[in-house]
Every structure is written in structure tokens, then in C-alpha cells.
Amino acid sequence: MRFALIFEIAKALMLARMKQTMVAAVGVTFSITMFIALLGFMNGLNDLLDGLILNRTPHIRFYNEIKPSEEQPVQFFEELQGYYNIIRSVKPSGARVNIYNNEAIITTLKDDPRVLGVAPKINVQVFFNVGKVDIPGSLNGIDVAEEDRLFAFSDYVVAGDFMELQYTTNSIILGKGAADRIMAEIGDYVQVTTAQGNRLLLKVVGYYQSGLGELDNIQSYVSLGTAQKMIGEGSSFVTDIQVKMHDFILAPKTAKEYSAIFNIQADDIQTVNAQFETGSDIRSMISYAVGITLLVVSGFGIYNILNMMIYEKMDTIAILKAIGFSGMDVQHIFTTIALCIGFVGGLLGLFFGYMVCLGIERIPFETEALPTIKTFPVNFNPKYYMIGAIFSLVTTYFAGFFPSRKASNIDPVEIIRGK
Amino acid sequence: MQKQKVIEAISINKYFYSPVKVQVLKDVSFSVNKGEFVSVMGKSGCGKSTLLYVLSTMDTDYEGKLLLNDQLITGQPSHNLSILRNEKIGFVFQFHYLIHEFSVLENVMIPGLKLNKLSREAVEHEAMEKLRIFDMQDHALKKANQLSGGQKQRVSIARALINNPLIIMSDEPTGNLDKKNSDLVFGIFRDLVQEFHQTMLMVTHDAELAEKTDRTIWMEDGRIISHY
């Protein structure tokens, strides 16, 4: 009842100065629209660029690193314990790149509730024999179905059907750059030689294009079985185990945990790709800064309009005070006006911001480097709309705060006598 | 029988400070009894309006004591004074001071809604009744700025009455009206005192009007010089 009256008076004052009130609200609408559009677009781009790397990168990668053994035989020699043992020119041992007991590791990982999925991989260094020239390349032997489920493999296969890799024996999906260089069409056969000297004819069933030129020049894909055959190993041979987590924040902790249990090397995504996070953070910071600046400017607009309104409505304020409204009540009336402007302007801003985002999403954006992208990317995360809504209310509240306090301090006697 | 004092001022002193310290009220003491129609007379600048604003509780910068219904109100926090003004005091000003954004009816209702003792419907009914006293019921839905001066003043009297206040204070209520309207408004005041036993305090410089009240307090130079 009490608030209803204050609201009623606020409404009447706003309707009396409809035009000014609308100008103030349009200011808020405009800044919130821009805020939403900017953040949506910026974060859409961020997601795209991050996704370029992060979606395809396993959250944790288990592998055996080729490095010198940390424990040299001399350290096990009891009589020399407590001495300084200096060994020069240590070389890496002919370590097995195969992950020992990988089937058990994969089963264990798959049972972990934090893990979304596990995909084994084999890395094979090869040469493509093209006429007299040998072009170096790197083949990834993958579990096609799992690779697609976890790392969106099919998104980057720009020609041919990616599942052919599994159905056709001795097939290969060539990196787009590599394919251009060896001039291999789909259906052609390419001859590869492995580092071990095995030769094999592989049928090209598709092209792979990630958008990172350097990667596309050397990276190609074969099935897990083909890779094992090429290097003459059995079906238990796996060089990498890639893990995708439900929540990739947990990756470093999980990596450390399993690295200790299985006694193998584990890299987590945060360590490997720290620079991407930094880039995204800075981009969102800039968008927030621009958005907030716009809002502050519209806040000054509201401040001005409320000040004017208070000068014009001195009589009304005086009479309200004379008939028993306290300074607080008067302050509430003008704060209510400010918040109404913020609320309505903000709400419209969110709506128009959403419309602008829909518009941006329709603008064609085609680039060689990004085969899956046809239009500009936009992020529609409700978080930005929440932030926009809260900001619009907070800035208008503060813009209204000082004028309302001035109104509450108006001395009615001065106004009434002053006539 | 001892008459009940509605408002009592005890040795009120007031100063204006800018540009120099001037004493505008000098040891003013008087009281108004229930049901009395008292006028304060004096030349312009004698401090009569200043006195009224001190009595109205809007001006708190004075020395002395002010009692409303035998209750000391000097020194109370402004929030309490607001509530007091809302409930116990009605105002009629020289300039009509209606709120132009609202209809006549709403203008009359606002102090009642602010008091928040009756439901909205009940306040509306009360407001209609008050307007009917002044024969203004047909104008209830007009905007305040569509009325003539005399009509506005009648509406503001209706507004002053809405919470059935202890006392109605008015500052030159007829000062801005022509003879006809001013007689009309004064007539209403008389009726209110006689029929509803409403206590009234009116500031005026019109000796003719003042003569028609129950009691006139003459002021000169910040002092009460006669009292009859």
C-alpha cells in the first residue's frame, strides 16, 4: 500500500515528462543493446577461436616420453650410496613408446565418473612417396567413432565421409595442405614409408582441414588398426591415451593423480594451452569495459533528466512534504523513477540486444581456414543477459541516487514562501 | 470547563541568518483552543507567515516550545514530524499547490493513502464526501490544472480535511482570489468551524476577513501586540 502510493506518484511524474523519460530509457536501451551484442559477438568469436584448439585437444593426454631414465643403474649399487655419482652423456633409452597395459588403463579411466570419454591414438612418422620426392608427414591412428564423439573429428573432414576410414581397410584422410602438395584426389592411392621402413599403399577417402595451416600440411589420419599394421605391432599397441573430462577445470588434478598411479607422462590442457585462456580473458575484459562505459554515459543522461525533473517539480515535492511525506518518501519516489527507467530501458535493451545477436548470427562469414563456419559466431549465454540486467539497474540506481537525495533535502518552507 | 488546547506556542524565538542575523519572531506565546477560528493579522514582513511555518512543524529551526494536543513536538525527528503533519494538520496555501499530474479526486486522496489507515476504496469514498461538501464532486475526475483558482482552493481545502486533522492552518488562503471566490472560501471556513467544529488558524493581512473570525492575533515586528 505504502509502496503502491510511492509508485503511483512516480508513475504520474514520469507520464508528465514522457518525452524526457523516454529519452533516458532509450539511452539505457541503447547501451544494454550494445553491451549484449558486443559480449555475444566477442564471446562467440572467443569460443570459436578457443574451440579451434581446445575442442580438438584432449583434456588430458597420457603418453610415454622419450627421455633419459632418471634412475641410472649406479644409483642401485649399495656400496656407492651416499657418494656423488656423476654420469656424463646420458642418452635416452630405447624406451617403448607403447603404453604398457593400456587396456587396463583405458578401462580404469572409462570408469572414472569425471571422465567423459577416452580415445586411444597412435602417432606414426611417415614419408609420402611422391615420384622422386619424399614428403614428411605425421599419421594419427585413431578410433574413428570415439575421436568424432569426443573431438568433433567429422567437423573438420571437409571432403569424403569420415567413417570410410573405419570401413575401408588401408584408407587415409589426408590433411588438406598435404593433399594439395601430393596432388592426391579422393579415391587415389598414396604410397607411404614408415620410419621403420615399411611401405604401404593407402587409399585417400577424405580431406581434413583444421584451419591451422601448419597442422594441415603434415597431419593425416588413418584408423587405429591401419596404424598398428604399418608399424608392425599388435592390436594392443597404443602410444597416446586421450581423455576428455566432463569439466576440464579438473584436468590438472586428474592428470597428476593418474600419472602417479600408472607411472606415465600426463599433460593437461591448462598447462599446454595457457595462452588461449589469456587471450579470451583480455577480449572479454575489453567488451565489458566498453559495455560499462556505455552504461555510465547513459547513467549521466538519467542523472541530468532527474535533476531537471526535480527542478520542475519543486512545488510538487514541497506539497508532498507539507502533507506528510518524509524526506525518505520523496527520495524513494525519485529512486523509483530512476529504477523504472533502468528496468524498462534494460528490458528493451536485452530484447534488442538479442535481436542484434540474431542478426549478427546471420551475416555470412566464410573463410578457407574455418571450414565449419558459415556465419559469424555469437554466444547466447544467459549469463551476459543477467549481467546486462543487473548493470542497468545498478547504474540507474546510482544515477538516481544523488538527484533523489537532493529532492529529499528540499525545504518545503522555502518553496512555499518563495512564491 | 477548561477548553482543550489544540496547539500552543511557548516563547518562540526565531532568527534569519542571511545576510545578517535578524530576529523575526520575538518571544511569541499563544494558544488555539479546540473548535476556535483564530486569525493572525499583521503587515507584510511582520513574521506572521514565519510563525505559521514554525507551527506547521515544517520549520524546525526556532527556539522555544511547541505543543500539539498537549504533546511536546519541539525536537522530534523529522520522520515523526512528517507523520504528525500527515495525520493532525491540514494545510491550505495561498497558491493552491495541487499536484497537477493527478486528478482532483487523487489529489484529495493522497494524504489519506499516505496515512494508510483505511483501504483505498474507503479513502476514495471519504474524498468524494469531502468534495461533496464543497460541491466539487462533479469535477472529481478532472486534472487539477483544468480548474479555476477558486475551485482549486476548494479542492485544497478538501485535501486538508481528508484525514480529519486537529487543526487546519492556512496562509493567505484568499490572497490570490477575487472578491467573490474569496468570500466563498471564507464562507467554507466559517461553515467548517460552525458545523464540524473544526479548529482553524488563518494568516491574513485582510482586516475585513480577520474581523469575522473568533479571535484575532495582531502581530507587528515579530511580536504579538494585541490579542482579542
Automatic annotation (TrEMBL), chain A:
Main location: membrane
One Pfam family hit: MacB_PCD
Listed InterPro entries: ABC3_permease_C (IPR003838), Lipoprotein-release_system (IPR051447), MacB_PCD (IPR025857)
Protein topology in the membrane: Multi-pass membrane protein
Segments forming domain MacB-like periplasmic core: 21-247
Annotated transmembrane regions: 21-42, 285-306, 333-356, 384-402
ABC3 transporter permease C-terminal domain sequence ranges: 290-412
Keywords tagged on the record: Cell membrane, Lipoprotein, Membrane, Transmembrane, Transmembrane helix
Protein family according to the UniProt entry: Belongs to the ABC-4 integral membrane protein family. LolC/E subfamily.
Name of the protein in its database record: Lipoprotein-releasing system permease protein
From TrEMBL, chain B:
Any Pfam family: ABC_tran
PROSITE patterns in the record: ABC_TRANSPORTER_1 (PS00211), ABC_TRANSPORTER_2 (PS50893)
Gene Ontology, cellular component aspect: membrane protein complex
Record bears the keyword Transport: yes
Keywords linked to the UniProt accession: ATP-binding, Lipoprotein, Nucleotide-binding, Translocase, Transport
Record flagged with keyword ATP-binding: yes
Origin superkingdom: Bacteria
InterPro entries: AAA+_ATPase (IPR003593), ABC_transporter-like_ATP-bd (IPR003439), ABC_transporter-like_CS (IPR017871), MacB-like_ATP-bd (IPR017911), P-loop_NTPase (IPR027417)
Domain ABC transporter: 7-228
MF-aspect GO terms: ATP binding; ATP hydrolysis activity; transmembrane transporter activity
Assigned protein family: Belongs to the ABC transporter superfamily. Macrolide exporter (TC 3.A.1.122) family.
The protein's name in its UniProt record: Lipoprotein-releasing system ATP-binding protein
